[in-house]
Inverse folding.
């Protein structure tokens, strides 16, 4: 493919994407292919010669798209949203075309400085504490996912708790971390990767709203200290995966300050709600956190992957992750005059993710995202009222923002069957979870193109299947 062919086919691909998004509502939300069916439709060996790009696009339609779950579908109510937007797609295209590696400031100064600025812009838009601003001791970085941010927080906390000894000798067997059973699985995975292990994770008791109990946290820390262990890390969740429960971060922060524990706040989806001033309660207590993350790729329209990760003091993070071979040394880096983002993440190389944030904020501004968030919250409030008025259902957790969890009053079997039947219909997609030992169906309203009629149709589907 030469430059002229690239221009022609690039136009064709942009048209294809626009048509896909325009016509998405007519497709089933999820795929019905059987395991192995996609692969069976493609040649077992690579082509011996170049093929027309038109044939590639034809197979994209014929083979790939039917094998997809359509996350941008307006009737996608599963998991959490993973929104895209037209400016963000163009930003991703520009980043791919530029093809830079932003591992060091010197390898592309604009990539680093734009990322730093975007983290500061988002800090202002979300009204996050100034202690996370890049002009101070802390700062932000764009990670791929909240899972990566959590791992980096764990590594920084381990570095601080052991004064660097665990990085040198690998000994961290006495370190203990704390979260709840409602927290994201990435916390346990991060502890495994960091060499701390699942056995050294304490699941703190929750209250009747599925939020961490600060008194139970304090008791668990005291018991571990009495046993000669070293408490070092607490992960509080501002909007849990199963029910969007909010841990009481201010009270948890008080425990962490008293016990000298690193406090990480995971606000993967709900943090973006703070774009709307009336929802900035989601950040209560974050001013006392050592680290924080939220995902514009969930509820803002910055397409996957894009996680904002902030630290109040970057020293421990850099100490945990910085290794400087001669081939990476630069005069600006040695002088401490620049940020080298390779030291803020696990991998060395990094994509130019800041472009899609910049494109979106420049081309759309924050208002479309604010309007979308408000629309989704209003719709979820309606759904919760519908559930309360239907004797066949009950709320499984207090409704929060754009998430409603319900269950069938006839028990787990009826709830599980409802989830399976609804998802098999292709008309909508939901996620099953377990709350307080009982099955629940989650309705997460988060699609950029989701309107009231889609939510009404999904509710009628659940009623018909019940």
């Amino acid at each position: 493919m030469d430059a002229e062919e690239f221009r022609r086919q690039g136009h064709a691909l942009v048209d294809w994407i626009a048509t896909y998004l325009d016509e998405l509502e007519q497709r089933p939300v999820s795929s019905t292919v059987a395991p192995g069916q996609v692969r069976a439709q493609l040649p077992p060996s690579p082509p011996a010669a170049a093929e027309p790009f038109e044939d590639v696009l034809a197979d994209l339609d014929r083979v790939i798209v039917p094998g997809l779950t359509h996350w941008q579908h307006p009737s996608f109510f599963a998991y959490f949203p993973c929104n895209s937007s037209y400016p963000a797609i163009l930003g991703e295209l520009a980043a791919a075309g530029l093809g830079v590696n932003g591992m060091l400031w010197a390898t592309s100064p604009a990539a680093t400085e734009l990322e730093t600025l975007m983290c500061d812009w988002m800090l202002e838009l979300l009204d996050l504490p100034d202690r996370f601003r890049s002009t101070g001791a802390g700062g932000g970085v764009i990670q791929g996912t909240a899972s990566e941010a959590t791992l980096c927080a764990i590594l920084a906390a381990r570095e601080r708790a052991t004064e660097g000894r665990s990085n040198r000798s690998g000994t961290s067997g006495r370190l203990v971390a704390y979260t709840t059973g409602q927290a994201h699985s990435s916390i346990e995975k991060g502890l495994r990767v960091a060499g701390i292990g699942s056995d050294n994770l304490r699941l703190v008791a929750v209250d009747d709203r599925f939020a961490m109990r600060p008194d139970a946290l304090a008791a668990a820390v005291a018991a571990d200290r009495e046993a000669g262990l070293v408490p070092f890390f607490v992960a509080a969740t501002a909007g849990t995966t199963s029910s969007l429960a909010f841990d009481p971060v201010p009270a948890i922060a008080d425990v962490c300050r008293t016990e000298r524990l690193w406090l990480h706040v995971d606000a993967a989806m709900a943090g973006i709600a703070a774009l709307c001033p009336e929802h900035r309660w989601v950040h209560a207590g974050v001013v006392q956190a050592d680290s924080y993350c939220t995902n514009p790729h969930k509820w803002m329209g910055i397409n996957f992957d894009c996680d904002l990760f902030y630290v109040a003091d970057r020293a421990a993070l850099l100490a945990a992750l910085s290794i400087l071979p001669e081939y990476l040394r630069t005069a600006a880096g040695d002088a401490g005059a620049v940020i080298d983002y390779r030291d803020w993440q696990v991998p060395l190389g990094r994509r130019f993710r800041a472009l899609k944030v910049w494109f979106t904020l420049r081309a759309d501004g924050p208002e479309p995202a604010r309007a979308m968030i408000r629309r989704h919250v209003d719709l979820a409030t309606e759904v919760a009222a519908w559930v309360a008025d239907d004797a066949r259902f009950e709320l499984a957790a207090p409704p929060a923002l754009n998430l409603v969890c319900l269950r069938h009053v006839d028990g787990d079997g009826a709830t599980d069957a409802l989830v399976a039947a609804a998802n098999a219909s292709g008309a909508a997609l939901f996620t099953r979870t377990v709350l307080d030992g009982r099955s629940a169906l989650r309705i997460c309203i988060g699609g950029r193109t989701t309107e009231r009629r889609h939510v009404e149709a999904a509710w009628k589907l659940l009623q018909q299947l019940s």
